[in-house]
Structure formats: structure tokens, C-alpha cells
Amino acid sequence: MAEPDTNPVIFLGIFAVVFIVNAILVTLIFFWGNGLILPDRSSKRENPRLTADRKRNAIILSLSGLMMFPFVLAIPIAAFGRHLYKKVSSPMLMMSLTTFPIAVLTCGIFGLTALLLPAVMQAREAARRTMCRNNEKELSIWLFEYHDQHNQYPSAIMQGESEQPHSWRVEYAEQGMSLNLPYDKSLTWDSPVNQNALQFRPMNLHCPSSGGEGYSTTQTDLVLVTGENTLFSEKSPPRINTMAMGDGTSNTIIAGEATGLHIPWTEPRDTNTDKQSIGINLPGQQEGDSPGLFSSSHNGGCFVLMGDGSVQWFGNDIDPEILKSLTTPNGGELIDFSQMVD
């Protein structure tokens, strides 16, 4: 089913109108609560200083965090303040009592912030995970387009005539994203000339959740799966097409996250079943490192791209034998996929 066509500008406009109307009502309520609107005519003429204090309190309350909540929440506080002004005659006592609603409000704001902060953080991480998943979906589109043109997938390390070995990610950036990179394929990836290209890492190779200790803005989070009997060899031939996946495209991992390997994005290197420990988010010697086959900055697992173009979430506790079996397109293993996908 197609997603509904929604215009974010409309929602932003509605939010702006509602916020402005709510802010005006909150301001009027607190000015009423401080006796500045519809004052009690039975009271005596006040000291100008007290009137100024009332204005100050009304402004402070109006500009407080309650402006972000429905205006009805301000009515009890305003009514309490108005009651204080009627019953108390001492200026000093009145000034001390009027600080009570502000103190209560301040504590309430901090309390609400403490309650809402975890939910906000979870929402932000959910958005990052969605972007990360979409990055792998976009990679699958390019891989399928390449497959349709050449009747085979690209190799992890590519090398044309008169070219030095270079990563598939360079081809992906130039062909899949139409980027004009300052990269000379006749030179090695780590030559001084090609070092400039490291600064132009495509956003599709970066997971929004990645960062922190040991993370470099020139590294890739997205890698192909290489190694013996995997879909992608580390040298040009032989390469394989979808028809040769005896285990089925939905049972073969072709790419995934490997943030903990800290691979520069132009380096012709990917995760390797013969060199990496089989596992997800395995602990490394330093914070941010992971020697495992897959690793990410997400809690509890990582995303992997399957041969059918689907993106799956694998948990850290996946059986290493099952994970290794899923990296081979023709291993002949019988895998109950439903038991190991979170």
C-alpha cells in the first residue's frame, strides 16, 4: 500500500497557529491571575511597586514552559495567584507568596522534562534507525541495477584496464549517486591525490546513529560481505548472479553495518568471514571498536541487507553458526529464518 501524500508545510502551519493562539491565551490567563486584567475593584489602591511586581510575575509565568502545554493547565495556577492577592495585605508576604506558583511551575517543568526526555531520545533513535535502513535499501537498488546491466553483481574490489584496485563504494558514489569525486583510479586509494576524496563521503554510507569515541567522519558504516564462499569475492572474477543463489535470495546476506571496523570509505576492504569473528557488536579492545562480522551504533543489533533486497534487523545474540550460514549463497544450510530475526 502506498503511503498517503502528506505535505509537511500544512502540519507546520497548523502547529504554528495552534501554538500562537495557545500562547496568547496563556498570557491572558496569567495577567488575569495577577490582577492586571479585570482587577478586584473592592481592593484599595496599590503601591506602584507591587503593580510592577505583578507585571513581572505575569510575564515570567507567561514565558515559562506552560506556554508549550494546553492553556487550561495555567488556569489553576492563575486562580491561586488571584486568590492570594485578595486575601493578603502585607506587601512582603504577598511578594513571597507569589513566588510559590513560580517555584511549583519550575519544579513541574523539570519533572516533565525528566519524564519526556527518554521518550524524545527513543523517538530520535527510531528516526536514525529508519534512515539507516533506507541507506541499505538504496544500496540494494543500485546493486540490482548493476546486476540488470551486467547480469552479475559487482565485486567488492574493482579494477578496470589501467586502474588500481579500488572499492565498490567509489563506483557506487560515482554511478549510483552521480557524485563527481576527486578520485584518480590509476592511483592507489591511499595516494596523496586520492586522500582528498575521503572528505567527500556520501551520506548513504553513514549511519546517523554513528559517532563518539574512535569514530571518523571518513569511515564507512556500510560494507559488503566478503570471504570464501560468499557472494562477493575480493577480486574481480568470479562474480555471481541471483540465479546462482542456491540457498535463495532471502536467505543470503549481501551487505550490512560494520561501524566497529573503522574502514575508510574509499579503501578496498569490507567485512570478511575469514578475518572477522562471527558475531554482531562483539566487544573490542577500545570503546567503539568491534572485531565482529557486523557492528553498529544501535543498541541490541544491526541492519543487514538480504539478497532479495529486504533489510532485516539481527540481534546481538544471534547464533554465530546461523549467521555464518547466511553469508554463503550456496551453502545448502536449512535455516529457520523466523527464529533468528528480531
Q: Let me know the number of strands.
A: 11
Adjacency order of strands in the biggest sheet: 7-4-5-10-11
Structural class by SSE content? alpha+beta
Order of helices and strands: HHHHEEHHEEEEEEEEEH
Topology, please?
Layout: H1 8-33, H2 48-62, H3 74-87, H4 91-150, E1 157-158, E2 166-167, H5 168-176, H6 192-195, E3 219-220, E4 222-226, E5 253-257, E6 263-264, E7 271-272, E8 277-280, E9 292-294, E10 301-306, E11 311-315, H7 320-326
Task: Tell me about this structure.
This protein has 342 residues and is of the alpha+beta class. The chain folds into two domains: 8-119, no CATH class; 132-339, no CATH class. It contains seven helices and eleven strands. It has a five-stranded mixed sheet. Helix 1 (8-33) runs antiparallel to helix 2 and helix 3 runs antiparallel to helix 4. The protein is elongated and about 85 Å long. The two termini are 23 Å apart. The relative contact order is 0.09.
Keywords:
single chain, 7 helices, alpha+beta, 11% strand, disordered N terminus, 11 strands, 2 domains, two-stranded antiparallel ribbon, elongated, 342 residues, five-stranded mixed sheet
